[in-house]
Specification:
Distance between the termini: 175 Å
Number of strands: 12
Structural class: alpha/beta
Largest sheet: 9 strands, mixed
Strand order of the largest sheet: 6-5-4-7-8-9-10-11-12
Shape: elongated
Radius of gyration: 48 Å
């Protein structure tokens, strides 16, 4: 029997399966392969995850570093302030000759057993510097257990006769001791022999400029003013010097004049020296 016109042919089970496969095929392709936009979003997501992990690791490392530093500081504090190891057990004095070490240690004022970290080296140096015979003082903490005191003593250059005795002055005119003058220290005669006095400063500058052959023959220096300095030699002769300028030329002329007769040798004008 022939089929009726217009009636659709009944589908077989195989046909239905084919139609279903044709409909689902595009969906399977989409799940297996991502589009460029999806790949880009996934890459950004992974990058963000990696950045979060990196920041987390950095924070953990920073916390560990801080904890280590705090532990070191705490340990150092405990050793410095609580341990009996870092305490003052020795006081070393260097440079003291005329000043006794006992005097230096007394003025230092640092007891044995004091925590070395608590020693105020600056304040201790100021206390020791109050000793008049010292020109400079340095105090150092030497770990683990020593305080070192380095001093430089004043060197007498001239002496001044006062009612209470002979006063020793250094090259800056600092009066630092009352004692008999050592060999080679000359008498200073000035109206106001103190630091900063112009006449005194000029006299000390003249003495400092003299060569040893001439310096050894000077017994007294007189300073009436800045430009009126005279040297009294050990043999009684007077060497008129003037101011402290042209010292090298004046010294050469003075050494030559010492072999000439005369009680007063004037080299204040070294190009026109005179004797009388």
């Amino acid at each position: 029997m022939s089929s009726r016109p217009g009636r659709s042919k009944r589908s077989t089970p195989d046909d239905a399966t084919a139609r279903s496969s044709r409909r689902s095929a595009p969906e399977k392709v989409g799940a297996a392969g991502a589009s460029p936009a999806d790949s880009d979003r996934e890459a950004r997501r992974q990058a963000r995850e990696e950045e979060r992990r990196r920041v987390s690791r950095s924070r953990r490392r920073a916390v560990l570093v801080v904890m280590s530093v705090v532990a070191l500081i705490a340990g150092g504090f405990a050793v410095a302030y609580l341990s009996p190891v870092l305490t003052v057990r020795t006081i070393d004095v260097d440079g003291a000759v005329t000043v006794s070490e006992e005097q230096v240690v007394t003025e230092l004022g640092i007891p044995l057993g004091e925590k070395l970290v608590r020693v105020d080296a600056g304040a201790a140096a100021q206390r020791v510097a109050a000793i008049p015979a010292l020109a400079s003082v340095r105090v150092q903490r030497m770990y683990p257990s020593t305080v070192r005191v380095t001093v430089v003593e004043r060197v007498p250059v001239v002496f001044v006769d006062e009612a209470d005795g002979t006063h020793l002055l250094d090259s800056d005119a600092v009066d630092f001791a009352t004692a008999p003058p050592p060999l080679g220290v000359v008498r200073l005669v000035a109206e106001n022999p103190i630091p900063g006095d112009p006449a005194t400063t000029s006299a000390l500058a003249v003495l400092d400029s003299l060569p040893p052959p001439l310096r050894d023959q000077v017994g007294e220096v007189r300073a009436n003013s800045v430009s009126d300095v005279s040297l009294v030699l050990v043999d009684g002769r007077i060497l008129v010097w003037g101011d402290s300028g042209k010292s090298e030329r004046k010294s050469a002329v003075a050494l030559a004049l010492l072999s000439q007769p005369g009680q007063i040798l004037d080299v204040s004008s070294p190009d026109l020296p005179t004797t009388k």
